[in-house]
Amino acid sequence: MKKIALFASGRGSNAAQIIAHFRQHRNIEVGLVVSNKSTAGVLALARAEGIPQLTLQRQEFYHTENILAKLAQHSIDFIALAGFLWLIPEYLVRAFEGAIVNIHPALLPRYGGKGMYGHHVHQAVWRARERESGMTIHYVNEVYDEGHIIFQARCALDPKDQPEDIARKVLALEHAHYAPVIENILLNNHTQP
Ligand code: GAR
How large is the average pLDDT for residues 94-111? Predict the structure, then answer.
């Protein structure tokens, strides 16, 4: 069994989709849900699903490597960030080389970087009057949104679309593609080139 840890900070709709996708899977399971916010919706979801969970403290996450032992305790092979807003520290990137992915709600390399998350991204796309947007799944390195791109999906934007419309279109793409892309990486032992 391959075990995934999901890292999420907020609402957790992508995490919910991934949990549902792997619920009955023969080879892959979500073995841990990690959040930096004790009130995150995603932790309530993990509780309801009977998945172990962990709340991070900033000091401990950045100044110790304690999380490595916790991930090992749960036999975690792979990490998927799903709306996780803290930068992944270098020791964790190194320990999970080629085994951490992130989803970003735009077509990287555009509209990425520090501070570009959630509605900030969709507002920037809207202000620039883009005719398309989309989502990107990429490997994680120690720079926000700069790891190798694995997969992108695009959606056309209508000039009448407001930021909320863009958000809705992009989120639908995320829900459709994130879990299958993770499954493909894990089943095909896809590693970072
Ligand atoms: C998703 O749209 C994800 O792409 C984005 O946060 C949202 C989380 O939604 N991530 C980023 O902006 C990272 N820079 P969710 O909590 O409902 O899955």
Answer: 96
